[in-house]
From TrEMBL:
Gene3D superfamilies hit by this protein: NAD(P)-binding Rossmann-like Domain
Origin superkingdom: Bacteria
UniProt name for this protein: Glucose 1-dehydrogenase
Similarity section: Belongs to the short-chain dehydrogenases/reductases (SDR) family.
Enzyme Commission no: 1.1.1.47
Record bears the keyword Oxidoreductase: yes
Record organism: Nonomuraea turkmeniaca
Pfam families on file: adh_short_C2 (PF13561)
Amino acid sequence: MGLLDGKVALITGGARGMGAAHVRLFLEEGARVVFGDVLDEEGKALAEETGATYVHHDVRNPAEWERAVATAVDMHDKLDVLVNNAGILKFRRIADMSLEEFDQIVDVNLKGTWLGIKSVIEPMKAARRGAIVNISSIEGFVGAEGLSAYAASKFGIRGITKSAARELAPFKIRVNSVHPGAINTAMAMDPEMAKEVDAEAFVKSMVIKRFAKPVEVSHVVAFLASDRASYCTGSEFTVDGGLLTGAGY
Ligand SMILES: NC(=O)c1ccc[n+]([C@@H]2O[C@H](COP(=O)([O-])OP(=O)(O)OC[C@H]3O[C@@H](n4cnc5c(N)ncnc54)[C@H](O)[C@@H]3O)[C@@H](O)[C@H]2O)c1
């Protein structure tokens, strides 16, 4: 028996990185999965390989949310899990960042998450249950040089998560946030960030002294999406190898 048997899940930003790991693990655990992204080539290839359904879905666009949700409901008659995973990062100090760059990050990471929650309320109400997992970051708890917009968006996700948890509890919809630390994906290897951050010192400051594999986050996301997390809502789950424990970071 799979942890997610019988569940229908929509995962954003699922074409690569952690989103792709969530797609694979959710399928392994018995869910039927629809995933979206703006990287159509990678998305279609993953769909072909795994049997999940890919939809072009820019999380900034309300009409594309409608289409992604409708795809899941039309194919599988319901939608009971949303993973708001899509995100972007740009390393830029405030003095050098343009307002357009700030807006881009907030639009994808924060407004995209809010739009996602808004878009699944009706189908989850209809299903009489639901689980929403919002991917924030350790930068949802602490600031970091060069990441003001990113941190603002990831702090914001905590606020949206808690407000939504309160609003949606009457409909048996749980809403939680996950806060990954250093995970081995294209985002963490961002070339501009690599130029500026002393990677060796960063790894030394960790408690578990390595980057995580994406699937190590997927296991926590799958737990929160499952009925095993029935008493968890409005909560924050760090998957950071202990990064946030002390003064090292
Ligand atoms: N990698 C890390 O160390 C780390 C740490 C903490 C949090 N996170 C968060 O985890 C999530 C996944 O990141 P990742 O590390 O897998 O990075 P990634 O860049 O590999 O994956 C992000 C995915 O989101 C997609 N995406 C970007 N803009 C989009 C949009 N407008 N609409 C739909 N999809 C869009 C990308 O195309 C990509 O497939 C992000 O929310 C990120 O902020 C990552």
